[in-house]
Design the sequence.
């Protein structure tokens, strides 16, 4: 099997790589019933120390920056209640936390969620957070540019490995919403 882009040595269908995914992501891949077939989800095995976008692009292909997306978890507070949301933006854009995210969540203040909270509640490794397999009830805010990609590279729930899937598959995630202006 060959990935739609990049220079990867170990490429396989994600459904055949569940042993390389963290529990919540493996469960999401195994139970996938979206409009895009799980057969179109690809796992690429990569070095954990090269998980950060700049290192990843340098190691696996310069063109990957244009097809990579980051999943960032944001915490918003209102009336003493904290709300968490996952935000998926192209790797080359900055997340508009205090504008688009804050307004969309209807909170007075929003910021990047604490690392411990993200790891504990998602069951994923920091630096490998992905929109697949997130806790029920978390909104998944999607930048339109990510959804529009024929294939997008996202985390796999661990620092080792990435998933490649059609951008439109993200629309089938529980709590998924497209937010114009999410990335800038």
Sequence:
């Amino acid at each position: 099997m060959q990935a739609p882009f990049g220079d990867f040595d170990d490429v396989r269908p994600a459904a055949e790589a569940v042993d390389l995914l963290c529990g919540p992501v493996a469960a999401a891949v195994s139970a996938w019933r979206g409009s895009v077939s799980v057969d179109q989800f690809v796992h690429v095995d990569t070095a954990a120390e090269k998980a950060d976008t700049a290192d990843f692009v340098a190691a696996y292909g310069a063109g990957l920056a244009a097809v990579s997306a980051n999943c960032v978890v944001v915490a918003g507070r209102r009336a003493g209640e904290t709300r968490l949301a996952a935000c998926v933006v192209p790797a080359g854009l900055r997340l508009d936390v205090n504008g688009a995210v804050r307004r969309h969540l209807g909170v007075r203040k929003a910021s990047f969620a604490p690392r411990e909270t993200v790891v504990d509640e998602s069951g994923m490794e920091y630096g490998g957070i992905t929109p697949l397999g997130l806790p029920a009830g978390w909104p998944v805010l999607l930048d339109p540019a990510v959804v529009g990609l024929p294939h997008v590279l996202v985390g796999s729930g661990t620092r080792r490995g990435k998933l490649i899937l059609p951008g439109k598959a993200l629309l089938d995630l529980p709590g998924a919403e497209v937010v114009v202006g999410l990335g800038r």
About this structure: Residues 39 and 137 are 26 Å apart (CA to CA).
